[in-house]
Write a structure and sequence with these properties.
mainly alpha; disordered N terminus; elongated; 33 helices; single chain; 576 residues; 76% helix
């Protein structure tokens, strides 16, 4: 379009090269001195060269050439127009405006210039000057309805409503009635608080198009906005009779009932709206997300869950619908059903990583390590750089005693989790466990040290590191300090108490060890064979051989089985 404008400008270039009329402040035209033949030829050559550079998108070169034209012919309005276009493309609107104002001052009868200037005034919201431009455009083309319509809209923005309505009448006189014109008038009436007149304008559209429910919806919105709820409900009921499954109509009714504090009626309309598969799913999702802050309320949670169920029925092929359904099922403690919803969501969109992580987190919390490995490794094929997924799969392999695979995934995690101290600590701690299991004591200790460097107060790391040091009978004082700290951080933890008791035993502090072993057994809900055996060992060194043998036998009954334990029972003395 702009190139066409340049061609139109070129058509008048010969005339411009012969002489220009200048507009003075007193609006008297002063004829400039005609250009010489040489200058005229140079102007044409430079102008064509500038257009060529502009076509090639060489803005800088084009601008330089147009400016050279102006150096020879300061009144060359075509060059001013083209320079304005170049500045506007580069978002230099103030400079573009100056060029166009000079161009229209030199050539008041060029519609291209005035239209371009109108666009700039509109962008800068300079409405008084915009009105003046529309006056010029109407002067040049008095039968073009668009100019009257645009000026009417400018009056509307200036709150000059009566003048806007008169111009809308002129538009209808030139172009005939239209829906756009009717809606523009309606906006004016609403600004004038004339709700009755604004609503009545839609009656004509409804009469002409009785099955077009959007007109009923628009009329209902006018009544609703002005709190005339009964009138809004009545018009919406008429529309629903025409199109019962139209979700937008039901949503509008739901909003009105909510405003009237009728939650049951509002919910019924929401459910009807959610059943409409043609209603935008993102709009439904936004409504459901609005329930999230209220999910602690049983009624709100039940409503959200039912709506999400209707959602997946209306959109059975939409991954997001199943993902949110899964979230709400999980909030309602329907874990099995939530997992199925997540799996369905993933089957519809394998790129939905968040859903995959949620599924694996559930499996991880259920200690279903086979499922964690299966679903986690599938996710990592697509998203190898997800730290938490690497961590969960790594821990799952650790639980399955495949230490090589565990170490591989956990090493990935520590590379990916540099900014997550919690995850970094857990990952290094897991590496410490895995390396210990492989007999790599050096790497195990280094991993535990890095875990504690990230979080010195991680009770799990402190306990495990201390326990493994005690098993090796190494750095017992350091192990005791770490174990004591873990018990201060997490009191009444049977495993942590047993670790501390065992370290004290290794330090030959038997009386103190006995106290901590008894605490451990008191807090142990699972009747651990290991803890019971440890207690027997401590009693032996306190001289209670009968008590020691009794606890060793009890440990065996609880499932402990080793040659060392058998020897202790048979020989009635401690053995390592």
């Amino acid at each position: 379009m702009k190139f066409t404008a340049s061609l139109i400008l070129l058509a008048g270039l010969n005339t411009m090269c012969l002489g220009q009329a200048k507009q003075t402040p007193g609006n008297k035209a002063v004829v400039a001195q005609p250009l010489s033949a040489a200058d005229s030829g140079m102007v044409k050559q430079l102008f064509f060269s500038a257009l060529r550079e502009k076509t090639l998108d060489n803005k800088k070169a084009a601008a330089e050439l147009f400016n050279r034209v102006l150096q020879i012919d300061a009144n060359n309005d075509a060059s001013l127009y083209e320079l304005a276009n170049i500045e506007q493309v580069q978002n230099n609107l103030a400079e573009a405006r100056l060029y166009l104002e000079r161009a229209v001052a030199l050539n008041r009868d060029n519609e291209w210039y005035w239209n371009a200037l109108a666009s700039l005034y509109e962008k800068s919201n300079d409405l008084p000057k915009l009105n003046a431009v529309f006056d010029e455009l109407i002067r040049l083309n008095p039968d073009k309805s668009d100019y009257y319509y645009d000026k009417a809209n400018a009056f509307y923005l200036q709150k000059r409503y009566t003048e806007a309505l008169k111009l809308y009448d002129k538009v209808e006189e030139l172009a005939g009635p239209s829906e756009e014109l009717l809606l523009s008038r309606q906006k004016v009436y609403l600004r004038q608080n004339d709700v009755k007149k604004a609503a009545s304008l839609l009656d004509a559209l409804i009469e002409q198009n009785p099955t077009q429910t959007r007109y009923y919806l628009a009329k209902a919105e006018i009544f609703s906005t002005n709190k005339q709820y009964d009138s809004a409900i009545a018009i919406l009921r008429k529309a629903i009779a025409i199109d019962p499954s139209n979700g937008l109509l039901h949503l509008a009714l739901a909003d009105i009932f909510r405003e009237q504090n009728k939650p049951a009626a509002s919910y019924d309309e929401l459910e009807a709206a959610f059943a409409d598969s043609n209603l935008d799913i993102d709009q439904k999702l936004r409504i459901l997300l609005g329930y999230l802050p209220r999910l602690k309320e049983p009624d709100a949670r039940a409503s959200a869950l039912q709506l999400s169920k209707v959602l997946v029925q209306a959109h059975p092929d939409n991954s997001k619908a199943y993902a949110l359904y899964g979230d709400l099922l999980l909030q309602s403690n329907q874990v099995k059903e939530a997992k199925e919803a997540y799996k369905k969501s993933i089957s519809l969109d394998k790129q939905a990583y968040g859903v995959q992580e949620q599924l694996v987190r559930i499996e991880f919390s259920e200690n279903n390590m086979d499922a964690v490995i299966y679903d986690g490794e599938k996710a990592l094929e697509l998203f190898p750089n997800q730290a938490w997924m690497n961590y969960m799969v790594g821990v799952a392999w650790l639980e399955k005693k495949n230490y090589v695979k565990s170490i591989s995934y956990l090493k990935n995690t520590v590379m990916l989790a540099a900014d997550d101290k919690n995850l970094l600590t857990q990952s290094y701690s897991g590496l410490g466990d895995a390396y210990h299991a492989t007999g790599d004591r050096k790497s195990s200790d280094e991993a535990y040290e890095k875990a504690l460097e990230a979080d010195p107060d991680n009770a799990y790391t402190l306990n495990n590191y201390a326990y493994y040091l005690s098993l090796r009978n190494e750095q017992l004082e350091k192990a005791a300090q770490m174990s004591k700290h873990s018990n201060n951080l997490a009191p009444d933890n049977a495993s942590f108490e047993d670790t501390y008791a065992w370290i004290l035993f290794k330090q030959k502090k038997y009386a103190e060890a006995k106290l901590w072993a008894e605490k451990s057994l008191q807090h142990d809900k699972n009747a651990s064979a290991t803890k019971t055996e440890h207690y027997g060992d401590i009693l032996y060194f306190l001289g209670d051989v009968a008590g020691a043998v009794k606890n060793w036998q009890k440990a065996k009954a609880l499932g402990a089985s080793s040659p060392v334990l058998e020897r202790k029972i048979n020989e009635k003395k401690y053995s390592e």
